[in-house]
Design brief:
By secondary structure, the protein is α+β, with helices and mostly antiparallel strands. A hairpin with a 4-residue loop joins strand 30 and strand 31.
Amino acid sequence: MKKFSICLILFWGVVQVSAQKDSIYIEAKLSSDKKNLEVNQEIVYYNHSEKDLHTIKLLNWVSAYNKRGTSLVYRKLEDRNNDLHFAKPNQLGKILELNIKNADNEIIPISTISDENLFIPLKQVLKPGERVTLKLQYRMQLPDKKFTGYGTSPQNTVLKYFFIVPDHFDPDNISKRNYHDIEEPVSFNTSWSVNFDIPIDTFVEGNLSQIQMNSFKGDLDTDPEFLISTNVYPSIKTNIDGIDTEVKFGYNLKPEEKQNLEFYLPLHLKFIKEKIGSLPKSIFISDKFRAKEDFFGNNDITFWKFRFPLFTDAEKTDLDYFGIIAKKVLDDNIIADKQKNHWFKNGLKSYLEIQYLKKFYTNTKLLGTLPEAKIFGIKPLKIFHASKVKLLDRYGLAYQYIMLQNLDQKIDEEFPVLSNFNDMAISSFETGSLFSYSADKMGYETFNDIVKNYISQNSGKKINPEEFLTALSEKNKSNSYLSNFFKQKNRVDFKLKHIRKENDSLQIRIAKNTDVAIPVKLETETKDGEKKEYWIDTEENQSITSLSLPASDNIYKITLNNGYIFPESNYRDNFLYAKGLFSNAKKIKLKLLKDIPDPEYNEVYISPRVRFNNTYDKFLLGFNLKNQSFFDQKFLYSVTPTYSTGTGKLTGSGAVSYSFLPSESIIRSLTFGASGAYFHYDYGLAYRKGTLSSSISFRKNPRSTVSRGIGLSYNYFERDLSPLMVANNDYSKYNLWSIGYGYSDSQMIHEKSFSLSTQGMEDFNKITAEGFYRWEFAPKQKLSVRLFAGYFLRNDTRTDLFNYGISRVSNYSFSYTLLGESASSGLLSQQFILADGGFKSFLPGTVNQWITSANVDSSIWKIFHVYADAGIYKNKNLPAKFIWDSGIKVRIIPDFLEIYFPIQSSLGFEPAFKDYAKRIRYTLVLNLGSIINAARRGWY
């Protein structure tokens, strides 16, 4: 009996240890206006760490919505969203009251209730394996749902990350965790019991099992999520291999969408189960989760009143929901610290997508059916290589696009510092491609078995993905490179060096720019389209791999890693022809318009050019030859010969540049370039310009809005002179050296920039500084201040050509885009360039010694602004002079087309002048690059 008792005690102890699962009991009451939530809560918390705990850290993440300056507000501003920054007090979220008691009902003092991290002192040390009970009573104001998708709205209330819970990912209470709205897990391996008291005629749904009306209970390895609404939303029940899974939706489905889902969901779930081994009994998909995890790039293209569908509604539903379901299943089965190990679940999701596309969408094009669209009976998009790119290629192309700008990040970069584009291109697409590459090499069934075993063995536990990579390496040594590959930015490049036929074999040499042993996939193709694949294991510390293949008279092309299957830095050297005119070389292809590059060819883009250069050249007719596609390249050239209808002469420009893009350096890019131009700047007067330049762009965090750079240039100019200019001893030839530093921060609320430069030639040296600050003090209402200072260190010039401008700029370096280079009257002369003094009124004169000025601009109503400029300047042998002006600005297209109406200035009340219409100024910026840069802010 005694032995039995001891065994029973030991057995009970084992059960207790294995059942050390935190539990949280919640009674929550939602107010009738859905703005306040009253909560009675009990937490039973176990010390799962290996250290004694003196405090428990509770996450109070509703406080992230409480005020300006929180991590959440700042992240939203990075994403170009200022809703939370400008929120009204009744739209914010915060704890209004909070009481915490221990198991003995003793009140635990709290220093503040507004922090996102609450540190609760313990009465006694909590040793590993021991538990403590906390009782909480609190009342919170829920934030507006529009900020993050969680919170309250007139339609419904979505609750997630609002209940106060222990921080399982940081049990040692050392550092603070802040809410960033990145869907990171907080609670796992926890038993939940939640009862709601909600307004009449409302219903609640969530990811916990419902045991009775408004009551939920169960175990979760993810965070609880509830939707309270006056609507009852649909659900679809499936049975996969005898196991029921219910998919619940937190939004309405259109009848056609629901019908499509009833067909596709069983297909999705069965496919996913075959790859990872298990499915949850219930899946809840919120509107926010759908928007975040749906298939990127399959939406219809809309332009004005036209709509161009890429895929059918059924295909869009299939593609969207496969990714959504795959990620939801992974979230429910895998516990991972998203901040550090985001790539594991994101990569598995992309891996599953790749396998699904290979099975059902192998030959589907990236643009879907769009290339088949006809205009006047023809299919114009067929001329683009983009029309031939496969949907499967999107994973490698997204990585290639961001890598070529040197804005990619290493795979295991912490998630909060990943740019939004790298969240997709690196964490998901690059990782998924590597998983698919490994699975292809070792066998898909073998890879899937490793995934199944790993998920099964880590059920209910926080994973360490390094163990998964180790398992891959142990199963197949060719995967050994992965662990280090994930820890750094990679610039791996395989290159086909040479093909030579010897007797009955093809001798092939493959080069790689790394000492790491990474396998490469080689493919041969005949003219009849017959393909054969070979996996080549390269050696460690060897840059060249030689191999021999049986020769075939029909083999005409050999390819490495075809279809962007491996994230290489350059795919352009992965193709060679085995015979013919282009044996051991690449073919040349001429194209009319910019396109996604086809790495198989050396592409030259030829496009017609028509430009109007006021009355000097009139229309410039010509064409442009360049190698720049939609993707950046290290080596670029552009040549644009044109015919001047105004002079009957040939004009034009050309440029060549090369950029070094070190992957790990304080420098993002180092660019060297040379350019030349020949155009007319006045009637019958031409200029010739030659430039040598170098620029350094410093490394930046891709989430950051800060850019910094240094530029150095040498310019040589020759100008034709009129008789009057010759008589005035004007400059026909001159050299300019310049060096400058620039800093800019394009964040939403406080935009600022600064530049410092010096310029000189044999007759002068000057130094110039400019600072700019723009403050958005209310939604779409801004105040901007510009400060300018210019000083001649030496000025022995013969004319005023190089002087600082007051209200006009001297375009002696031909760097400003002026519609009328030498126009002194007429509409073209009224163009305004914000440079030098920056005065909008036509204040006469130039400055040959020093000038300081301030330009202020502020919103007053919608597109209407007021502006004011003031400054002091001094010319040689003359006293300093104070000048000023003011007026109204109308922003037709902000920063691109704006009109200035001067009112009062040093000249007087300008609307009273008879020639007032000639005093109105305008800015016109025709720079597509600036528009693109403005559009991509928030992505990288």
